[in-house]
Amino acid sequence: MSFSITRLRIWFAVATITLVVVVTGVYLVRRYEQRVLLHIAAKKLGVEIQQSTEGFSLSKSEGGRTLFKISAKKATQYKETGRAALQDVSIVVYGRDGSRFDQIYGANFEYDNKTGNVTARGEVDIDLEANAQGPKRPDQATPAELKNPIHLKTSGLVFNQKTGLAHTDESIEFHVPQANGSARGVDYDSHTNRLTLNSEIKVATLGPTPQNLVAVHAVITKEPRRAVLSHVTVKQPDSTITSDTVTIAFRSDNTIEQIFADGNVEADNNGVNSYQVQAAKANLKFGADNDLQLTTLSDGTRFRSSGERPMHGFSDRIFVHFDQATQPTNIRLADNAHIIEEPAGSGPSHSQQRTEIVADALDIDVRNGKLPSKAATSGKAQVNIDQRASGNQPPTTTVVTAGRFVADFSKQGHINHILGQPNSRVVSSAAGQAERTTTADKLEVLYNEKGELASVLQQGNFRYHEALPANQGERTATAEKATYSPSDELLRLTGSPRITDGGMSLTASLVNINRHTGEATADGNVKSTYSQLKEQPNGAMLAASDPIHVTAKKMIALKNGGAATYSGGSRLWQGANTVEAPTIEFNRDQRSLVAQGTGQAASPVTSVFVQKDKDGKITPVNITARKLTYVDAERRARYEGGVTARTTDGVLTADHVDVYLKESGASTSPTAQPGPSQLDRIIAQGTVVLAQPGRRATGNKLTYFQQDGRFVLSGDNPAIADAEHGTVRGESLTFFSKDDRVLVEGSNAAPTVTHTRVSR
């Protein structure tokens, strides 16, 4: 997020220019107020001189110091009309302490004794100059050097001795080293010390950044010491500032104390990154050296900027602090501050977002008077992020809150880092999706060199919550630390992470959640518990309502379907039913699993069932294989690849084995503890070998019925080798675990063959 500070120093230029006009008027009227010209013309010319005088000169002193000196090459008194005329007049004003060297000169002045009017016939020039060394030098001494005098020129000036009013309808021009200016029509009241510039006020500054000030009207008063300009416009090559009224307040030494702008205050910049600032009022405060210190914008303050990332916003008040070089150092948006950054015109979809900062107050530190270096909120604060739709993802809205936000900026004005603490909270929502909420003690947001979001970190008591649809419960997560990366939309949880998803809970050393696909991965000491299960009377191994537990080194889970894959020493159990394998794929909703071995004898799939032996006792059946597939609704466990089933009275091996289990049924006692699933029958196929004490059976297919302990062996010339009775072959051999009976079936194509051992 880049940031450009408006050149508020332009108001300082306005103040300086207006000050020139004010000082000019003050000095002009003060000289008339002293009535230098009027007293001389009235008393000396109007009463005492009734003739033409060559080389006229007159001065007035007080306390050993000359206040002023007036000279004229010629003075003429007209007895008939009572008027007096002075030609080629020069007036020098020294001041009471000799600290001034102001000069007023013109070709012709006239005084009318009857009306009391003093009229300048033609142009009048005025040079205003301070003389700091004057009090230390001899009386009437000319300054050793004239430094930057203020020069004014006007004509048609009329001053009435009786009313104390001065007026001209003509233009007045002034020149200073920093600016030139003009106005049309001047009125001055010497009794109230009120100077009015009637119209067409124009000021043009000089230098590398010229400025032009235009005002319709101006009033300058001594009490209070101020100047009021109306309909003011200040223009620079690439910017304009306007206001309905500008009031400048002066100190006793004529330095500017404050400038007030009231009504439609607006600053517009039309540069490469244009901006606009609007407010109803503005207040500029100055130091003793006319240095701008503070600017306050108030009442409906709004701003807008263009560029790669357009920005706009508003605040009830904006304060701008300046350093001694009148460079802005701090900007404070107070009372309902809003800053909105619009999406970039181009770029990847994940950067197409609208960001809004809302706070009771926002302080921005400024680097080199141009770009932000740091920003901090005060009071209530939140960040609103609107993400545009991308691909199949709907538009999302994210609201971030914290006790306080602090942002650091790069040298280019882009945000580097945002810190929000304490009590950080992030709420994300999208159409058709449930709200997702995260909380933590601290929130950190990092940006890359382009100002794009790089990562989001929440640390300290992290919590995540999301309501699931259709009464499926909720998805929650806890951890010490959570890190989110927008580039791959991956949320990484560390520090004892724990996740619950509907009826499933998960703990691990590390958990990653893909916010785009919903896939979750866990690594290190993985343990899952599936609870809130309904009992399935028609099921078997996974039919109980007891929780199903899974442990492993790693886990991958899909968002939909309740499926997860566990790897690395995986173990799944419900009650006494247990499956162990290097990899277990488990589907909670279907109550099914696929267990995979590594293809090595050292890492097979293992599981345990039970059956009743010939004595009626419950005995275990341990089965190992390279793969196990089980669907609880079918009550069938299919083993493939190097299958071995061990019981207390034998070992069965085959290429693949289907184990059918008995229905679990509903428990008749609430305190009964369910045991392992019980065998119903087994079907083994492919290189079948059954080894029992004293007996060995081989064939291509073996079916075992647990109910009566019956084995049916068939396929590929089945045979039973008995240590006592010899070998029996046939098309089908049926034998029992409870006794030694063998039923043999044969055909013409495959006759029955019996080999009997004979003791010698």
Automatic annotation (TrEMBL):
Looking at the record, which segments are called Disordered? Answer: 371-396
List each copy of the Organic solvent tolerance-like N-terminal domain by range.
433-518, 622-739
Q: Where is the composition biased (Polar residues)?
A: 375-396
**Keyword terms, alphabetized:** Membrane, Signal, Transmembrane, Transmembrane helix
User: Which spans are transmembrane here?
Assistant: 12-29
* Superkingdom, natural source: Bacteria
The entry lists its GO molecular-function terms as:
glycolipid transfer activity; lipopolysaccharide transmembrane transporter activity
UniProt GO cellular component terms? cell outer membrane; outer membrane-bounded periplasmic space; plasma membrane
Q: Known Pfam families for this protein?
A: LptC, LptD_N
Which protein is depicted?
A: OstA-like protein
Highest classification ranks of the organism: Bacteria, Pseudomonadati, Acidobacteriota, Terriglobia, Terriglobales
